[in-house]
Amino acid sequence: MILNIARKELKSVFASPMGWIILALLMFAFGTYYLNGVNDYFEVMSGAIRPAERYGVTQFVGQNVYGLASFIMLFAVPLLSMRLISEERRSQTLPFLFSAPLSLTEIVLGKFIGLVAFLSILIVYIALMMFTLNIWTDIDFGYILANSLGLFMLVASFSALGLYFSSLTSQPVVAAILSFIALFALMILDRFFAGDPSNTMAKLSLMNHFQSFAGGLIDTADIVYFVLFIVTFLTLTIRRLDADRLRG
Amino acid sequence: MNNLTVEAIELTRLYGGREAVSNVSFSVKQGEVLGFLGPNGAGKSTTMKMLTGNLAPSAGSVKICGIDMIENPKEAKALIGYLPEMRPLYKEFTVDEYLTIAARLHRVSSKHIKKAVENAKERCGLGHMSKRLIENLSNGYQQRVGIAQAIIHSPTVVILDEPTVGLDPIQIRDIRALIREIGGQHSVILSTHILPEVEMVCDHVQIIDKGKLVFNGGIDVLKRQRIGNKLLIGFNKTPTVEELLKIKGVTEAEIADNNMMRVRFAEGAAPHEAIVKAAVKNSWGLYQIAPDQTSLEDVFVQLTFHDAAAEAA
């Protein structure tokens, strides 16, 4: 049942040009950064005299591409998540889902999985693009996998938050702006506490937890953070929809 | 097991302290078509939302085929097909795509989905619209898609909120026939403003006003009320009211429009012949005598108006 809703969401993303355009534009951006990374590699590395300053091409290009990806998702996810519930609210299609034999949890999870599945297409594309480096050199697969997992967790967290804000309003644009502001605040939270990295507030920053993945390190503490973040916002969304049923 | 398909028990719904629906109880038997009547804002749609689990009642409960909507919402919802007032259509899909999704979400097994979609399209006359985007369909066809969506999983109870709004007369006739057909095997609850429609398709009528049930009974009861114990008589030389009241059985008489007299008589009495005889004897010039039919509108206004008067008192 969850998958049926996810299927419906995916179908509706691709029913309009929106889905295709976002995929195309984002891949164009990532491709450009990837090419630039490969071009710059020799220039930069030949400038680095001491061996300690040199590092692998995977990391060099990966930093470029995944750094951009995590930043661009900040804009892309709110644009995609905004319509999930608020659009249904506006066109009054929610009763269609509510009167079907589905629980609210199934509806919310289905929508969440639908969006994450769409974004995963991008993550898989990026990973494949990075793997093509393997044609002319040996690359660090572990680094790419850690980054892909990190990006996946980050995107899933963005989607959960976007889904929640989408359930709050019947104006998709308002939902997009709200979730963008919230995500941006969470991303740069650690900058405010840069002087005191042990501060609890800094620990809440999404970027802070993405950093270890970006370095190629899979840390369970970070995974738990992302999972908790996702569960929190999905639960809030379910509660919001339940309030609809109760308060009308 | 009894054959009650829908039971609403003392349903009450508060909106910020105001009772939108208060203490409404009714039941629907299998194969029955229940008409829901009421002026705007009477609580028809609210009641329907509660029946389908879209809205939680503030008090009371709903049972679908004995399954409680609040305790086992999934099982209960599986038995219902619902068309809300605002059609819940995903306009970016084609008719086929949309109906397939509807079938899938209503747990039609994947083997039967194709057949269910074809069947629903055929019953709603949508066969030639399969590949069209819902967005591009006319209002009437969109309404048909809405109805198709509600019957696709052949539910035991079909709940339609104003199903004939926006349709042309031919489509309305088709939809009414369809409702009758569904009503044969399943139960149908429909709300409407159009009174003749209730007379045509419903077995059972409920009139709701200001959240309260003011009438609940068979359509024949309403029809009887409609005919009533009244005669409309036309005289060339109009007699006085007193003269008419002397005739046995007549309880009330008044002058109506066009020089006609409206006469009310006691239940069971049949003063027709006596009136005719009196007319001949006194040469009143009788030219017409007929039962006075109150229109359904009048009955409706009476029922809803009485309530308002009672409340004011």
Give the helix level of chain A as a range of percent.
Answer: over 70%
Radius of gyration of chain A: 20 Å
Query: What is the typical, i.e. mean, pLDDT of chain B?
Result: 82
Query: What is the number of domains of chain A?
Result: 1
What is the CATH topology descriptor of the largest domain in chain B?
Rossmann fold
CATH class designation of the largest domain in chain B: Alpha Beta
Number of helices of chain A: 11
Mean pLDDT, all residues of chain A: 89
Radius of gyration of chain B: 24 Å
Report how far the terminal alpha carbons of chain B are from each other: 44 Å
Largest inter-chain contact set: A-B, 25 and 32 residues
Give the total of domains of chain B: 2
Oligomer: heterodimer
What does this structure look like?
The complex is a heterodimer of chains A (248) and B (313). Chain A is built from eleven helices and no strands. Chain A is mainly α and 248 residues long. Chain A has one domain (2-247). Chain A is globular and about 70 Å long. Chain B has 313 residues and is α/β, with parallel strands linked by helices. Chain B has two domains: 4-218, P-loop containing nucleotide triphosphate hydrolases (Rossmann fold, 3-Layer(aba) Sandwich), CATH 3.40.50; 229-291, Alpha-Beta Plaits. In chain B, 36% of the residues lie in helices and 28% in strands. In chain B, strands 6-7-8-3-9-10 form a six-stranded mixed beta sheet, with helices on both faces. In chain B, strands 2-1-4-5 form a four-stranded antiparallel beta sheet. In chain B, strands 12-13-11-14 form a four-stranded antiparallel beta sheet. The longest helix of chain B has 17 residues, at 169-185. Chain B is elongated. The A-B interface holds A 1, 4-5, 7-8, 11-12, 15-16, 91-103, 245-246, 248 and B 13, 15, 46, 49, 52-56, 73-75, 77-78, 80, 82, 84, 86, 88-93, 97, 101-102, 104-107, 149.
